[in-house]
Design goal:
- The protein is α/β, with parallel strands linked by helices.
- The chain is built from eleven helices and nine strands.
- It has a five-stranded parallel beta sheet with strand order 7-6-5-8-9. A four-stranded parallel beta sheet has the order 2-1-3-4, sandwiched between helices.
- The longest helix has 19 residues, at about 10-30.
- The relative contact order is 0.17.
- Bound molecules: phosphoric acid mono(formamide)ester.
């Protein structure tokens, strides 16, 4: 089955194919959609809050001519009565042709895939991974940079410990020659060892050098909900706040990304600067998820 569970599963050939197909999906959107998934149903199971991932998956299925069944409030789910994920997945897999799921628990998308009769698309598993996000992140980078054929310095900034989007994107970027990764975070929320390679550069401060030389800066929210110690969160919550003055120091053709939602880590006055591409990034979720649904359903 064509599950999407981790960024590890993609080869460079897979990534090239998904990028190409996502470009074709943009054309399909402009033409008013397709009937490629006529008669097919997407089950969207979201047990953590989401705006972009759930709605872009649902939009993607609707643009492909399919339908959606959705569970987005755990208090109205039988999970609140103690149902285990294995049972939920067996049942929803019988109602639908493909499932996207977001859970609080790292690794739970893999468990879901084990019991599912239909493909599972991981929409974020706790502090683990967010592989479909990393594909739309890659799509955004591919649109603006010559990744793989020129040097590309990517700096990840913020909550790298709990930030599942950075875990997946760091893995994806290992497929491309010439990409170097800088990880910028206070020590207590630095990138976990399992995602770090020898060639990566670790910083505890966002230096002028990183700001001025990065081709891509990928900022993230401090994820209050995942901290075990609220005092630790309070100590780091304002560690990095992108101001217009800071972003103006970036290369003119650099890209400032963020998976969103943001809280206070990028000032709204940054939004109109040419480097700010996080809204475009979020919109890229629709064509990329259209291509993933189409691959999962082999249509
Ligand atoms: N980027 C992302 O996962 O956003 P949502 O939490 O709104 O889905």
């Amino acid at each position: 089955m064509n599950h999407v569970l981790t960024a590890d599963q993609f080869s460079r050939a897979d990534l090239d194919r998904i990028m190409q197909r996502s470009t074709e999906m943009e054309t399909i959107i402009k033409q008013g959609g397709s009937k490629m998934c006529d008669g097919k149903i997407l089950g969207a199971l979201f047990y953590e809050p989401s705006t972009r991932t759930r709605l872009s998956f649902e939009t993607a299925m609707l643009r492909l001519g399919g339908n959606v069944i959705s569970e987005s409030d755990v208090t109205f789910s039988s999970q609140s009565k103690g149902e285990v994920i294995e049972d939920t997945i067996r049942i929803v897999g019988g109602y639908s042709d493909v499932i996207t799921i977001r859970t609080k628990v790292k690794g739970e998308a893999k468990i879901a895939a084990h019991y599912s009769p239909v493909p599972i698309l991981n929409g974020g598993d706790g502090s683990g991974e967010h592989p479909t996000q990393s594909l739309l992140d890659l799509y955004t980078i591919v649109k603006h940079h010559k990744i793989g054929s020129e040097k590309l310095k990517v700096a990840f900034v913020g909550d790298l410990k709990y930030g599942r989007t950075v875990h997946s994107l760091a893995k994806i970027l290992r497929n491309y020659d010439g990409v170097t990764l800088d990880f910028v975070a206070p020590s207590v929320i630095q990138m976990p060892d399992e995602y770090i390679h020898e060639s990566d550069i670790i910083h505890t401060d966002l230096t002028k050098e990183v700001l001025q030389t990065a081709d891509v800066i990928y900022d993230t929210r401090m994820q209050k909900e995942r901290f075990e110690d609220i005092n630790q969160f309070n100590q780091v919550k304002n560690a990095f706040i992108f101001t217009p003055e800071m972003v103006s120091q970036m290369k003119p053709d650099a890209t400032l990304m963020h998976p969103l939602p943001r809280v206070n880590e990028i000032m709204q006055r940054v939004d109109t600067l040419p480097q700010a591409r996080y809204f475009e990034q979020a919109l890229n979720g629709v064509p990329v998820r259209m291509s993933l649904i189409a691959e999962a359903l082999a249509v």
